[in-house]
């Protein structure tokens, strides 16, 4: 007998048997009573969903409050015990020869046409933006040298270096739905070093300590995945650096988002099936934070939803519509990249 | 009083188990109608569905577990899952529901077997002698063949059940039992060899 014939013989004969095995002492009624008893017990899955959400919410809140407390405490400690920072070594009082307007006019007149006009204005603007402790500092010494030399400054590098105690101010903010709850600032000691030619041409931004914002944001929204939708909550930690030259903020973000997809089957009560992703994104927004966009990837770390199986990842593009409203079309790749589900997310924060 | 809509007619399902027409009523209710009622947590419909499939499913579970108590436990947990997840089932006519219930029962059986067995360490053993049994019904050959499967060692039996009876591929079996595809093939080959010997030894001849 061939293998296939043997398989077919067993399959056909066994599939024809509809009764319980005769050798068993089975009581169908008793088994059904046990099934009914188990069905009447509270559904484990439902309990798990709420336990899951409660634990996630508790963990997020705990982390949020703990980090808030720590940074607030550090802030207070700094204020109480740290000595005040020494004033910058360069100040108005050190230069008793303010550059008269006449000199500036003369200087601009002597510059060749190819030289950038009114470099002094550019300098002062740059310093105002980049510094905190000497906002009105103008490097007069170089201006004087420039005027004295009366040479065109095009292609000329002046290697005079300023070593000042200029510092950048960093900020840590906690926001809920985009509204700032609390923020703290600090200024790490970092020596500023720029060459005067760079200052003259207004190219100092790359050399200046960039201002960084660290933002912890709690967001809320709604998400549609396939044919199911539900409320969505997320927490993200972002690092933002201001790029003054591009009038933009670069942002790197890492967070967790969880959506309670509402599943409704025919004749059944609605049930919530969570889907939790860990997400990372990179993007750019305007300085006023009203416009911007970002690209992100995510990986599913937990789900009770039958739409997802195997390894599941998401790709998303986020467009900022208003300061606090974002829309995100997304693609969810599931069943080990064999299936693609479209999605759409609207979030506040 | 429950009213089951069937093809535009209404059938009164009063005291369905005591009524003389109960059997007739059960025959009139097809899977789809029973499923619709079960989704509304109708315990009478659940019982009808259970009575229709439980004997066959118990036989399936026993074919995997080879233990009465285990088979009953698997049957119960399987039916609990069937009723709890009935909303996820999409009826496609024919034997689609039976196929879905079978799949659940097989998964439940494998879950139990995985807890108790390492399918990579199945010792080859000689098939046990089948004791002479007397069957009074017309399924003599079928019952004997069923009994032969039970004589296989757990690993051989599980792979043979999944491949030959349920129609799983070696890849699926390997994933389900956490073994390699080659181990699955090898165990199937040994199971077949053993069954052939048992068929000859017990003088079971199947005429096609």
UniProtKB/TrEMBL annotation, chain A:
Organism superkingdom: Bacteria
TM regions (residue ranges): 49-71
Keyword list, A-Z: Membrane, Transmembrane, Transmembrane helix
Keyword Membrane in annotation: yes
Protein name as it appears in the record: DUF4179 domain-containing protein
Organism field: Rapidithrix thailandica
From TrEMBL, chain B:
RNA polymerase sigma factor 70 region 4 type domain location: 143-195
Keyword Cytoplasm: no
InterPro entries documented for this protein: RNA_pol_sigma-70-like, RNA_pol_sigma-70_dom, RNA_pol_sigma70_r2, RNA_pol_sigma70_r4_t2, RNA_pol_sigma_r2, RNA_pol_sigma_r3/r4-like, WH-like_DNA-bd_sf
Domain RNA polymerase sigma-70 region per the UniProt entry, residue ranges: 49-117
GO function terms (MF aspect): DNA binding; sigma factor activity
Keyword terms of this UniProt record: Sigma factor, Transcription, Transcription regulation
Domain of life: Bacteria
Keyword check for Nuclease: no
Listed GO biological process terms: DNA-templated transcription initiation
Pfam families listed in its UniProt record: Sigma70_r2, Sigma70_r4_2
Family: Belongs to the sigma-70 factor family. ECF subfamily.
UniProt name for this protein: Sigma-70 family RNA polymerase sigma factor
